[in-house]
Specification:
343 residues, alpha/beta, Rossmann fold, 8-stranded mixed beta sheet, 4-stranded antiparallel beta sheet, 13 helices, globular, transport
Amino acid sequence: MDRPATRATPLLTIETLQVQFRGSPSRVLDGISFSLAAGETLALVGESGCGKSVTSLALMGLLPSAAQVLQGNIQFDGHALLQLSERQYADLRGQDIAMIFQEPMTSLNPALTLGEQIAEAVMRHQRVDKNQALAQALAILQQVQIPAPELRINAYPHQLSGGMRQRVMIAMALVNQPKLLIADEPTTALDVTIQAQILALLSRMQQHSGTAMLLITHDLGVVAEVADRVAVMYAGQIVEQGTVSELFNDPQHPYTIGLMGSMPSLASRQGKLATIPGALPLPADMPAGCRFATRCPFADHRCDQQRPPLTALGVLPGSHQVACFNAPLEQNFTLHPTVETMP
């Protein structure tokens, strides 16, 4: 899903955010910057351990006590989030910013019914009594297409299937009509058929409410289905970002190209799937320059010593950006890099 780029004032702007865990020799987030407009979907993509979930926790004000924000600014709808008190953040969280976590069974309270949990979120942020809150809970369960919602509202989480629990999580996140929804791997634990239903539901609910969505995923198929723009993360840094069509039709960072090459296809396969050699660098061995340099077939001496900045490639300022000294790659190389293949 690819909409025209918007020049409207962003709802969310993150600038040069740096986060480091106590005792770690390197930053888990190292100067990430991106923006998100109202009604837009931005997919944050990368392999496990790259910093996607830490980014979401920083946005929600839920970083663990061992994490420290060293630098950066997060602006959301006129609020400087890093300057808010815990009470101010709690008022914002669940009302204007909501999150769908990866595993519903660890997020839902097993001792409360679905209705009680959703109604609690409503009463925390709206001036309504319990009966009015339960009525809103029933209405949102109907909107997310829970079968027999008048019965399920009294059910407990363990009595639902995985797909229905995820629908309840979506209902809880959207019941207060937030301006920003953070979805952290919302379909990872679900089978393919249920994944498609959940993605369609998220898109439909988003279009109905006008909510912006930050979608955190490692699944490029999901990105192609629901996102407007994509930011690719590697080892705590954003290495490429642009519209879905820009990144899928003209990927420019070697890491993005590697991700695209590793995607399985329904078309007839010619040979084996490509893989990216090596592994994410350990915090103690983080390269001084480009963090992908040790795995990159195009790396040169600059990449070992200097960090490449995010540089615009497209005509529109801030549209297609890539952090690579050798981009555009087609102007500097014949694109046949050597890659390892699956056994």
